[in-house]
Amino acid sequence: MRIGFVELVLLLFIASLTVGPNVALFVDRWLRRAQRTSAAAARRKAQLEAQAAIEREALLTRFRVASNVFALLLLAALAYGLLLRPIETPPKAYTVPDVRQDTGAARTELSADSKDGWKLGDYLGVDCVRTQDGLVYAAAYDGASMKKRKSDLVRTDGGHDAAILSVEGELTGFAFDGNGDLWLTVVTPTGGTLCRARHDSWGTSVEPVVTQLDGAPLGALSAVEAGPDGKVYFAAAAETSVKNGLEGALRTELLAHTGTGWVYVYDPADRSVQRVLGGIAGASGLALSEDGRTLYVSDLGSRCVWAVDADARELTAGGKNCKSFLSGLPGYPGALALDEDGILYVSYRWARSNWLEKNADRTLLRSIALRAGENMQQKLFGLSADAPCAEAVDTADGSWERTFTGREMDGCTAVCPAGSKVYFGAAGSASLLSARV
What we know:
The chain is α+β, with helices and mostly antiparallel strands. 25% of the residues lie in helices and 38% in strands. It has a five-stranded mixed β-sheet, with no helix packed on it.
C-alpha cells in the first residue's frame, strides 16, 4: 500500500503531537541539567578562585610580615654591629698633626723594569728587607689567614733564592747582630715573640727569647734592631689584637689612636727587658745609628719619627728627652733604614687619609670604621702612584735628599738601601721593588 504525500504529512503531524512534547520536555530537562551543572562548576570555580585569592593574600601577608621582621632584625643587627658591638680598642680623640710642606727633594720613581724587581716565588707579601755580606734577605709569608700563616727568611742575589729559615706565624722584622746571630720578631694569633737564631744553626733552631712582659703577651711586634753593644731593641705597635697580623694591628691603632705602642730593649748579658719609649700611636719601625747612640722610631698615627738616646729608659713620646726628628710627614711612616752615610730612609705604610684626620675628634665614626671589618678598613688606606712611598733625609743636618714615588700599592712595608739601589717591600706582593739612587 502506497502512502501519499498527504498521508505522510498527516502521520508526521500526529507523531509530532504525540512525541513532540516528550522530546521538548527531554531537551528542556537536559538543558536545565546542563545549566545547573555549568552553574555549579562556575560556583565551584569561583569558590576555588576566592579560596586561592584568600590563601594568596594570607601568604603575601605572612611574607610581608616576615620581610618586615627580617628587615628589622637586619637593621638591629647592623645597628649592633656598627654602633653597639663591643670593640677591643675604643678610639680616642686626638689632635691632627700639621702637614709638612714640600721639601723640594729630588723625586725618584720606582723602576717599572721587571729586571730591577726580584720575584721571591709564591709568597703573599714581604714584611722586612735587609742586606748582609752583599746579599739581600727578605721576610716573606704564605697563608692569608694568621692561623695558617708561615714565614720564610729568603736569601737572594736576584737570580737565586733560598729559604734559609722558617717560622710559624708572621716574621715582621729581623736584624743581624755583631756575632752574626739573627734576631727576629714573630707574630702569631696568641701574641708576639722576640726570637734568636744563632749563626751556626740557621734553618734548624729558632730560640724564643722574650714572649711576655709582666705576665702579658708582647702583642704586635713590628721591628727589631741590634746594637753594636749587643743589646737588642724591639717595638710593639700597640696594645691591640694580633689575630689579623701586623697590618691589622697597625690599621686598628691608626683608627683608634690609643697611643699604647712601646719600644723595648733586651740585654742578652743579663736577660733583662726594659722600656725605652712609650706613648707611640703605632710603633711601626726602628733604626739605630751606626755608633748605637741614637734610636729612631716611626710613629704611625702621629706621622712623625722620634729620635731618642738609645741608653734612655722610660721615655714618653713627645715628652722630656724625646724630640721629634721628623714631623708633619705626608703619609703614615712604617719601616726605617739607615745607610752607611747616615741617610735615613722612611717608608710610608699608607698615604695620609683625609677622612681619618677629618674625624680625629669623632670617636663614634671611627668606632663604626673599626667595627666595619677588615675589608672595609682596607679601602681607607693605600698608596697612589703619585703619593710618596718613601723619603730619604740626612740625619746630620736634616736635609731632605730624595722622595720615592711612581707605583700604586696597598702599602710600603719595607725599605732597604743597598749601594746604588733601594729595595722596597709592598703589601700583598712577593716581589722586591727597587729604585736607583
